[in-house]
Queue: 2 jobs
Job 1
Amino acid sequence: MSASSQVLEIEALGKTYGSGAKAVHAVGSVSFAVADRELVCVVGPSGCGKTTLLKCIAGLLRPTRGRVVLRGKVVTRPPEEMALVFQEYSRSLMPWTSVRNNVLLPLRHKRLARQERNRLVEDALGSVGLARFMDHYPWQLSGGMQQRVAIARALAYQPSVLLMDEPFASVDAQTRSDLEDLVLRVRDEYGVTIVFVTHDIDESVYLSDRIVVLTHSPTEVKEELPVELPFPRDQIATKELPEFAQLRAHVYRQIKRERSAEPATTPVPNTGTGV
Amino acid sequence: MSKRGSEAIKIALEILVPVALVGAWQLEAMHAHSKKFATPWSALVYFPHVVHNLWPTLERLAAAFALGTLAGVAIGLPLGLSFWARHAAMPHVEFWRNIPPTAVLPVSILLLHSIGDRQKIGFGLFFASFPVLLNTIDAVRGIEPTMVETARSFRVSRRERIRRLVLPAALPQIVAGMRNSLALSLILILVAEYYSSTNGLGYVLLNSKNTFVYRPMWSAILMIGLLGYALNALFLLFERRALGWHRGWRAATPQ
């Protein structure tokens, strides 16, 4: 792959909280690149700084070392063409206003005609199957539906890169597979590049074009693994393929090895309160 | 019991219990033959002679409550947002908050160069602002970080984040502070009216005592009680309309 086809480049990125003896090296040195319209899943043992990494990529956290380059430009603050979906939908959606206004939030400061703005909101909610629920409050919807609102909000923003931080970790298994298929569909519909952080190995194999396996903290890339399962993916047929089982087992072993290699004294950084 | 039945009993209790109590007061006062105790009926029919003192009190109350709320939010917002502002201001807030308002009342006349509305409203708003101020600081500090980070990732400016996220998120706590502020405002204005004033319900109370004419006093007390009740009921109505989402959200979300 030539350098120009890469949308997103993470170059020797590191993040250390605090300094001196109390310093916590959340992310050691992480490098990988993501091509246009690629779906890359980032997996790693729990507490390995995945969320810190993603916040650095999103421009919400300043890396201590290295840099993030988006289409040739170094990311120093949240870029216009990037959107973020967090795990905790109930905390990222505004409970005091309608689903419509929640999706509208990132569009208010964009220079768009009112009709264009409304069209984006309606299209995004339509493509996640929530057109009928525009005037509901988010908390009137189920967990899976709320996460779809968060996805619609990100889509309406028209990003070229979508960052997702364990977005389906707090929904039930059935809803989860529906949402996974939704992600694959909107990737094609909206032509977005997706970086998807998850701790679920099945999910990473099912969704990805490529998996980036991380080591425990201080985090580095352990392996980059192409996933050459055929598209369109199917929750039953794809998961029955022997390649699926092999990939799944391979990633599982890598992470398990990481977990057992983890020194007992390594502090587990609390990446949730970075800002 | 049917829902409608229990609803009817609730309303009946709300009306019958006060009626019974007032009736008892009426009977007791009629048989006491004391000039000090007016019957509730005589206090009620005296309202027309007292009501011209209600308006000045209401005006001062409204001004103190409204300006106190505004001041509380306007000062609480920056203090909630900025660690350094909070660090600099909190000792002063705690100092003034812990002084009983009555201790400052005589001084307020000197400080505000006034014995008129300016002093009474100024005194009222100063102390009425504290419940709103403290609740605003607390609410702004407690805003969900994920919500702010999401908005930041969408490049929503700080100004817009304050307008669209911080203030609406803080509103339930601000309104709770306002309710305390409203009750406090009434106390403060009445106390202020004891001091060098020529009208208002507080003036009626003190003047009545000083001139040994008790009917206006009981009339004013009844009026103040009804006023407080009505204000609280109005406030709850406002709260229900402005914060309907909050009840639903709290019921739907495990806290």
Job 2
Amino acid sequence: MALDQIFGIAGSALNSQSVRMNTIASNLANAGTVSGTDQDAFRAKRTVFKAIMEQQGSVQDKSYQGGVKVQQISDDPTPVRRLLDPGNPLADKEGYVYTSNVNEMGEMVDMMAASRSYQNNVEVINTARQLMMRTLDLTKA
Amino acid sequence: MNVLDNALGVHAQALGMRSQRMELLARNIANADTPNFKARDIDFKQVMQQAQDTTMVTTQAGHVAQGDAGSADGVKYRTPFNTAFDGNTVELHVEQAKYGKSAADYQATLSFLEQRVSGIRKALRGD
């Protein structure tokens, strides 16, 4: 029976997309964070997805095969911005602070994409569930 | 058991294949944002043809068994309309449309099965 596999597959996608939305929320929350050094500045986080092809590593359950998981969460390589703000207590000797490299517009768009993907997979589950219920009704025909 | 198989006709096999196709499409939709993921689909016509062909029997040691009708045979990679930068060939709207269509197909097969089952039930009851 392949219909019940759909729940695992779409479920793994729901999980991955919600991790993606979490990182976006974290990026947006830290968009205004400033820091005193270049290394300490907040860098936007990016989720990297990977298809679950075989039973591998942390994913042993066969029902997730063919689904998707978050392979890694990596930093956005875009350079952070350097602002002259001598009044800031965090400013370095030259009076500069380092702001995050979060692009708020881009994050909002990414959030929309993640939420649409989430909704898609909810629809997939709904359809599969309805078909499963109808198949069970076969006994009453 | 064989009698019941014949009574349900090709629809019992078709239902299994349709649900397998839906699983494959669900995989595509789940991996819509995965880099380098290649969308796949089942060539339903081909698989159905294989299922209906007379099954070959292995009678000697050197013979190779014919694949099960419900196996992964007939799974092919989709040719996308446009290519993406990240090597992903899932086009979400296409997959959504195909998923909706295959859900309808599944229901159609279910209806045929329901008719068969109610027919058998009538025959058994004799009313």
